[in-house]
Design brief:
This protein is an alpha/beta fold. The chain has 16 helices and twelve strands.
Length: 336
């Protein structure tokens, strides 16, 4: 009996040894797959616009740090961009995990291979066409021959304005359109270097307060209830840490609801974060035509239309669908 036991033990040792020798190189012989490493630093992209106050509120209130700590996030790294296209270049380079960004730039980036999805809305409308006080406006046709500063090609403002011009039978090539960031564009109109600007708030409010221009058309009139900013999350984060994404969306929803309930405090948070004049922020949130929202379904129709217009303009070379651009399942779960 003793010999039988010893022989059995030796056989087991041989089997285990052979298993270790011939096991596939990356296979965990215990039968448990190696889990992906959880991120400890969450890298957030955003722009200095009143459209994206939700990101700033979540930061100022300490909600990012507090809400995400249980998921292993030890540091929140916030990176500011002047417009969406360079923000998407950073995400393509792997420098961002999530982004508060205009809904149009991700279309171009996704068509170029960006692995990411829109998971929540941030705001609709909220940009104005502003002309110098000495310029006359009598409709879209009156812009022919004028110089207009706006965000770069592929941005929300670029797409909305060019579609609006086309819908009104105005050839955009007959308008001198200058791609600019918000600060550069405001400086240009106030110095008389361009006749007008089409920018997201609070830039229109600043030009008006400075007495250098007047808003003549809000973007919601150009394209009613059009998607503006959205919350974009990398595919890697969606796949590897879905619970963290759930909480990111819950925190975003909370911040959005807070802004709508406390717009004056939100304006103060914005002014402190961006070092801009409080009166500009207050004027912006009081008189813009925008609205802070979080439900991504609100933005789907216009975003899919952006993709169609992008292809017409030659910004992308293939058609993109709702499924290519959105994943609403995380928002639906967060709300439930």
């Amino acid at each position: 009996m003793r010999k039988i036991i010893i022989v059995a033990m030796l056989a087991a040792v041989v089997v285990v040894s052979l298993g270790c020798i011939f096991a596939p190189e990356n296979e965990n012989v215990s039968g448990v797959e190696n889990a992906p490493a959880k991120i400890t630093t969450l890298r957030i992209g955003y722009q200095p616009s009143t459209h994206q106050i939700a990101e700033m509120v979540a930061s100022a209130k300490g909600w990012w740090a507090e809400d995400l700590k249980p998921f292993g996030v030890e540091k929140i790294e916030e990176k500011e961009f002047q417009s969406g296209p360079p923000e998407m270049q950073a995400m393509l380079a792997g420098a961002l995990d999530i982004a508060y960004v205009g809904t149009a730039p991700p279309i171009t980036a996704i068509s170029q291979g960006l692995d990411a999805k829109i998971v929540a809305a941030v705001n609709i409308n909220g940009s104005d066409l502003v002309l110098r006080t000495d310029e006359n406006y009598s409709g879209p046709q009156s812009l022919v021959g004028k110089s207009i500063g706006t965000f770069p090609p592929g941005s929300i403002q670029d797409i909305v304005m060019k579609k609006w011009l086309k819908d009104n039978n105005v050839d955009a090539s007959k308008i001198d359109i200058h791609p600019m960031g918000p600060g550069e564009a405001v400086t240009a109109i106030e110095a008389g270097k361009v006749d007008g600007v089409f920018l997201p708030h609070p830039s229109p409010a600043k030009v008006a307060i400075d007495g250098k221009g007047e808003s003549v058309v809000p973007s919601g009139e150009m394209w009613p209830n059009h998607a503006c900013c959205s919350l974009l999350v990398s595919g890697k984060l969606l796949r590897e840490q879905p619970e963290l994404v759930d909480q990111i969306i819950k925190t975003h929803i909370n911040a959005t609801d807070y802004i709508n309930a406390h717009p004056e405090e939100a304006a103060k948070i914005y002014a402190e974060r961006t070092k801009q004049d409080l009166s500009v922020a207050e004027e912006s949130v009081k008189n813009w035509d925008g609205k802070w929202v979080s439900d991504p379904s609100i933005e789907i129709p216009s975003t899919v239309e952006y993709a169609r217009v992008d292809k017409q303009l030659g910004y992308i070379n293939k058609s993109l669908t709702e499924d290519d651009l959105f994943d609403t399942s995380f928002y639906e779960k967060a709300k439930a």
